[in-house]
Design goal:
- It is elongated and about 70 Å long.
- It is an alpha/beta fold.
- A five-stranded parallel beta sheet has the order 2-1-3-4-5, with helices on one face. Strands 6-7-8 form a three-stranded parallel beta sheet, with helices on both faces.
- It has eight helices and eight strands; from the N terminus they run E-H-E-E-H-E-H-E-H-H-E-H-E-H-E-H.
Length: about 210
């Protein structure tokens, strides 16, 4: 980086100054420009042509922005998904793209597991009810409730997050089924997950 001079790097909505991790990643050899709006139509058209790189969180990146990135070498998504990024447009403009596939799969799986258990045990409903009754919880117990070994959980996609969720479900005794046409049968067997042929069947089979 020192041989090419300082980078000018755009940073979008949800990431706020002073951009300390970003500055560390660029070894202090970058000037950062903040684009606080989640709407790409509000990006400064006079600043975009100066960017060497663009770090993107929530905004879409379409031809509206790409056409103005005349110096940009790469766009990097902070997260995993890139459905709002015009990859074909980037390729045509000669701009490289990278996402962050390792971003938070274990944290998302933890949250999913917590939500599954909360739904199964009707925790939110019990919490709301507990604020209004004057006797004990036994008299206000909600039924029916799902029992883990008799509950089927369906997972759409056995990628990093889906796999992490399946591994968390196993010790609880859930029956786990999943739909993913791109994953080998060996992966299903290793996770002890039943393969489902279609989304329709998954929805029909799953309790959660």
């Amino acid at each position: 980086m020192k041989n090419r001079g300082r980078w000018t790097v755009g940073v979008t909505h949800l990431i706020e100054p002073p951009f300390e991790p970003e500055n560390q990643a660029f070894d202090g050899e970058a000037n950062f420009v903040h684009f606080p709006s989640r709407d790409e139509n509000k990006f400064s058209p006079t600043v975009l042509p100066d960017l060497d790189a663009f770090l993107v969180w929530t905004p879409s990146i379409s031809e509206v922005t790409i056409s103005r990135l005349t110096k940009c070498q790469i766009i990097v998504r902070y997260g995993v998904g890139y459905d709002k990024i015009d990859l074909q447009g980037l390729e045509g403009a000669g701009i490289a793209f990278s996402n962050n596939p390792e971003y938070g799969p274990e944290d998302v799986a933890d949250t999913a597991m917590g939500m599954i258990l909360a739904l199964q045990r009707r925790l939110m409903q019990h919490d709301a009810l507990a604020k209004s009754y004057s006797d004990t919880w036994q008299e206000n117990h909600l039924t029916p409730m799902l029992h883990s070994p008799s509950t089927t959980v369906g997972i759409i996609g056995l990628g990093r997050i889906g796999t992490s969720v399946a591994r968390r479900l196993a010790p609880f005794g859930y029956k786990v089924v999943a739909y993913d046409p791109y994953v080998s049968n060996g992966m299903f067997r290793a996770l002890q997950v039943e393969r489902i042929a279609s989304l329709t069947e998954l929805i029909e089979r799953a309790d959660v």
